[in-house]
Design brief:
Elements: E1 5-7, H1 10-20, E2 29-33, H2 40-50, E3 66-70, E4 78-83, H3 92-95, E5 106-111, E6 120-121, E7 123-129, E8 135-140, E9 144-145
Parallel strand pairs: 2-5, 2-7, 4-5
Antiparallel strand pairs: 1-8, 3-4, 6-9, 7-8
Helix pairs in contact: 1-2
Amino acid sequence: MAKPQRIKNEAELLAWARAWVPKQPSGSVIGLRGVLGAGKTAFVRACMHALGGRPTDVSSPTYVVVHSYELNHSKFKNIVHIDGYRLKAGSHVELGLEQYDGAPETLTFVEWPERFIGLKFNAVISFEIGKGTERTLRIQNEQRHVSDS
């Protein structure tokens, strides 16, 4: 596990995303763990901004499950944002969400990754709430199933 990253505000989150997200391989699936309000969607918004997209387009997919955003970036043409909060463990297969696993020119973010049994994640980021707007991000950069952790 990488050293925890302390993020004090959205400007720092954007700066960190600008450094981190371009290093991710095309087709990556990134799990996002944290309680409601921990900053998972804010992180996707920062990544969208870091890749030249419109961060104001990003909203939580809690009720629709999946949002897909097009990008004009040399490496990533799409960001997919999936929220498993309302899903039962394993139901992503019935919904066809495994199609995003390794999708070319796509960066996929999955909130509540523990509900996606059998899906491999390139990294899992845990968000911990601190004082005020402060968050701590813990990154596990291992390609394995979340249920193996």
